[in-house]
């Protein structure tokens, strides 16, 4: 098996060491999931994972939390394990029982699928006897593959159903982790400064001693440090708080209660103008705040790390399923920033903007979703967030359209159609076809924002309009007209993907109609918004102004004609990072989709004040809401939409993306530009994907590992018109696709080499 090991800032990466273990039999399936959840048998006690089993819940007197399956027909999945190359599952057998003892005897009183000829390993719908509420069930699975090998049965996995089987996506409870300081420093008599290394959302637990009851310790918490202390006036919405802690005589452990912030705990949906409420912390974790630093004043005894514990709250996160290392030290730091941001900003178990409002915004998910996919395998986190948004949409026009893009991405990554089936009509309404005018485009300025329209998309706010970027100062001078290029580009993409959704569900007539609608929008955008003189897209109908934003979206979504792309790329380069951290997602998608890898790498590794490195330089360990305080004076230091670089590294620089639902087919298309070496491990629902390259003049070497029951197409950068290509030391020709050479490979470990032929 391939392992990767490399050290950078005390982080271990996997080195490309390939060890072949011949097997005469297939390993049993692993990573069994029920409705996308793997650890359905895990019980938490006030947020801490425990040794309590589902079977022993009746004896628990503590407050416990668990994941409850809320579907009457859950989808079951597993990872196929076989070290032979080109392995595909050909059949499976699932046993579901009401007791573990029955499965041990090979019996199944709920469902025995029998040997079922199918390659589906990610989303098999339960088809047994009706499941009952509040009941524990047990299941296991075995597989057959195209090598004629039958696996053993998997280990038994159990799950419990909810009181109400309403079909809502199930989630894990939030997890609490105790973290110790990395540094304790004395600032003088009875004054200490504590650094936890990274910021996180949590509470503070202190074990302190006192000889009298009148002692009071002053505790300061903050995200930012200044002059060796917690910054008491950090500015923007960077957090700082001060507390007084009265001590009792003797040695005691104290939990600091965090004061709730009025803005991010507001449950009145009418107070913010968008008609949705802040998401609240559950009672078993209590209120939290983001902080990295702590000060204790008026406490003279020496402090040890074990006396100061930060109780960090996150959604369960597996650090080991992803890793990245390259020859560029800035790029490595940017990756770690983005990866950690996914973990840290999961503190509510749903996507939110950050700490300022704690509201689920579409704009945060459109960036956070692919970055989360790049670093963790918790697909239910995103799906729950998307289903929540159906009935709690926020105000920008294009953000409603984004919901269709995001649910299609969910299906591509999971292969699980439950949400598409359950909410098909809701997703269709989010394409905003109701706003179509006679010219085939949509507009929010032509009188179609009726109560009926708002009801159709469940919008309850007071303000619904186009924004293009946020804050508005980041729109590169965009001129708003009745017909907006950015919004209509989103409209085209949502229609195109809604057509694909209809096709996936077998709705062929609607698939054809939606495809026709999408083509109409694309035609009208190119007819009415593309300036034939400049070759650039105008901001809309009725203006001659061309902004960065008006051009990156048509390029990112495949609207722009091939002949215009060179001119558009020249213009995009000339504008620089003239957009917010939110817009950087589509900027980099556009740049890489047009194969301008040099500029993509330049943006990812930039060290100016509009860069991911600047977030690190100013002192944050979580991605920011804006490039710098000067670009958004009220920004916070915990915004997932600032983490676009993480998914761009995985999806575009390293080139790993699903081509078919559930990673049935994978595209690997690295675009290294001048980057010499890089290696990555990213999770997929079928297993880990590994890619490593060595990039030399006239020679590109690639090592990949594809999980079983998947196939891949690999795109190698073409070094010259004449080249030599080998796959696993066997010469191949490949198919030339522009500046790339494409080959098809199966599962397993493969070495590919392409070099200039003299």
Can you give keywords for this protein?
Immunoglobulin-like, seven-stranded antiparallel β-sheet, 36 strands, eight-stranded antiparallel β-sheet, 16 helices, alpha+beta, 758 residues, Glycosyltransferase
Task: Tell me the layout of helices and strands.
Elements: E1 6-8, E2 11-13, E3 27-34, E4 43-45, E5 48-49, E6 64-66, E7 68-69, E8 75-81, E9 89-97, H1 100-104, E10 111-112, E11 116-117, E12 124-125, E13 136-145, E14 157-161, E15 175-179, E16 183-186, E17 191-210, E18 216-222, E19 225-226, E20 229-230, E21 240-246, E22 250-256, E23 289-297, E24 308-314, E25 323-326, H2 329-344, H3 362-375, H4 379-391, H5 397-414, H6 418-422, H7 424-429, H8 451-457, H9 485-504, H10 508-528, H11 548-556, H12 565-575, H13 584-593, H14 597-604, H15 612-617, H16 644-653, E26 656-658, E27 665-668, E28 677-682, E29 689-696, E30 699-706, E31 711-717, E32 723-727, E33 730-732, E34 735-737, E35 740-745, E36 748-756
Parallel strand pairs: 7-14, 27-31
Antiparallel strand pairs: 1-2, 3-8, 4-5, 4-6, 8-12, 9-10, 9-11, 9-13, 13-14, 15-24, 16-17, 17-22, 17-23, 17-24, 18-21, 18-23, 19-20, 25-28, 26-27, 28-29, 29-30, 30-36, 31-35, 32-33, 32-36, 34-35
Account of the protein in words:
The structure is a single chain. The protein is α+β, with helices and mostly antiparallel strands and about 750 residues long. It has 16 helices and 36 strands. About 25% of the residues lie in helices and about 25% in strands. The protein folds into four domains: about 140 residues, Sandwich (Immunoglobulin-like); about 140 residues, Jelly Rolls; about 190 residues, Glycosyltransferase; about 90 residues, Sandwich (Maltose phosphorylase, domain 3), CATH 2.60.420.10. Helix 3 crosses helix 16 and helix 13 packs parallel to helix 16. Strands 15, 16, 17, 18, 21, 22, 23 and 24 form an eight-stranded antiparallel sheet that branches. The N terminus is likely disordered.
């Amino acid at each position: 098996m391939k392992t990767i090991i490399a050290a950078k800032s005390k982080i271990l990466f996997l080195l490309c060491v390939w060890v072949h273990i011949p097997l005469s039999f297939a390993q049993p399936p692993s990573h069994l999931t029920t409705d996308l959840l793997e650890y359905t048998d895990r019980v938490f006690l006030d947020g801490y994972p425990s040794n309590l089993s589902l079977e022993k819940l009746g004896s628990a007197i503590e407050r416990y939390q668990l994941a409850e399956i809320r579907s009457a027909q859950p989808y079951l999945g597993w990872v196929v394990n076989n070290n032979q190359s080109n392995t595909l599952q050909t059949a499976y057998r699932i046993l579901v029982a009401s007791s573990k003892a029955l499965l041990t005897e090979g019996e199944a009183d709920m469902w025995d699928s029998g040997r079922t000829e199918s390659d589906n390993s990610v989303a098999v719908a339960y088809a047994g006897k009706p499941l009952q509420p509040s009941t524990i069930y047990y299941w296991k699975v075995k597989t057959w593959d195209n090598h004629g090998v039958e696996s053993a049965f998997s280990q038994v996995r159990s799950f419990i159903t909810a009181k109400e089987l309403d079909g809502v996506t199930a989630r894990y409870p939030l997890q609490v982790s105790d973290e110790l300081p990395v540094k304790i420093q004395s600032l003088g008599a009875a004054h200490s400064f504590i650094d936890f290394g990274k910021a996180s959302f949590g509470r503070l637990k202190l074990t302190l001693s006192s000889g009298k009851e009148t002692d009071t310790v002053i505790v300061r918490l903050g995200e930012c440090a200044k002059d060796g202390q917690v910054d008491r006036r950090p500015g923007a919405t960077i957090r700082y708080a001060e507390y007084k802690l009265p001590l009792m005589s003797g040695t005691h452990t104290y939990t600091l209660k965090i004061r709730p912030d009025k803005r991010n705990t507001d449950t009145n949906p009418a107070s913010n103008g968008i008609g949705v409420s802040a998401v609240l912390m559950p009672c078993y974790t209590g209120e939290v705040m983001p902080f990295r630093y702590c000060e204790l004043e008026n406490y003279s005894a020496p402090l040890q790390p074990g006396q100061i514990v930060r109780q960090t709250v996150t959604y369960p996160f597996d650090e080991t399923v992803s890793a990245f290392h390259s020859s560029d030290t800035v790029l490595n730091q940017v990756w770690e920033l983005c990866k950690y941001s996914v973990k840290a900003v999961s503190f509510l178990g749903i996507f939110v903007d950050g700490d300022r409002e704690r509201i689920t915004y579409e704009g945060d998910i459109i960036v956070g979703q692919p970055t989360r996919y790049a670093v963790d395998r918790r697909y239910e986190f995103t799906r729950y967030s998307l289903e929540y948004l159906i009935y709690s949409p926020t105000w920008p026009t294009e953000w409603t359209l984004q919901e269709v893009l995001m649910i299609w991405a969910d299906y591509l990554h999971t292969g699980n159609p439950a949400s598409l089936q359950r909410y098909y009509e809701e997703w269709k309404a989010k394409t905003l076809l109701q706003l179509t005018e006679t010219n085939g485009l949509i507009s929010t300025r032509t009188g179609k924002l009726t109560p009926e329209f708002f009801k159709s998309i469940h919008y309850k706010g007071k303000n619904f309009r186009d924004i293009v970027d946020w804050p508005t100062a980041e729109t590169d001078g965009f001129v708003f007209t009745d017909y907006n290029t950015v919004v209509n580009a989103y409209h085209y993409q949502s229609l195109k993907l809604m057509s694909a959704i209809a096709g996936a569900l077998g709705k062929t007539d609607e698939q054809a109609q939606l495809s026709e609608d999408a083509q109409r929008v694309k035609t009208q955008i190119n007819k009415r918004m593309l300036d034939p003189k400049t070759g650039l897209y105008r901001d809309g109908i009725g203006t001659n102004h061309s902004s960065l934003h008006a051009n990156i979206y048509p390029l990112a979504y495949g609207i722009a004609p091939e002949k215009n792309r060179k001119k558009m790329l020249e213009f995009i380069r000339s504008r620089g990072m003239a957009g917010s951290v939110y817009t950087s997602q589509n900027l980099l998608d556009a740049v890489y989709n047009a194969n301008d890898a040099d500029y993509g790498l330049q943006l990812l590794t930039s060290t100016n004040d509009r860069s991911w490195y600047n977030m690190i330089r100013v002192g944050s360990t979580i991605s920011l809401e804006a490039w710098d305080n000067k670009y958004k004076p009220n920004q916070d230091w915990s915004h997932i939409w600032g983490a676009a670089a993480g998914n761009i590294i995985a999806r575009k620089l390293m080139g790993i993306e699903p081509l078919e639902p559930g990673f049935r087919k994978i595209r690997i298309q690295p675009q290294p530009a001048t980057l010499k070496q890089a290696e990555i491990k990213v999770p997929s629902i079928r297993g880990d994907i590994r890619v490593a390259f060595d990039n030399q003049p006239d020679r590109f070497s690639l090592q990949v590992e594809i999980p079983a029951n998947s196939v891949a197409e690999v795109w190698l950068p073409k070094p010259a018109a004449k080249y030599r290509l080998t796959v696993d030391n066997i010469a191949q020709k490949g198919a030339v696709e522009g500046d790339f050479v494409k080959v098809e490979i199966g599962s397993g470990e493969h070495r590919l080499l392409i070099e200039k032929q003299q």
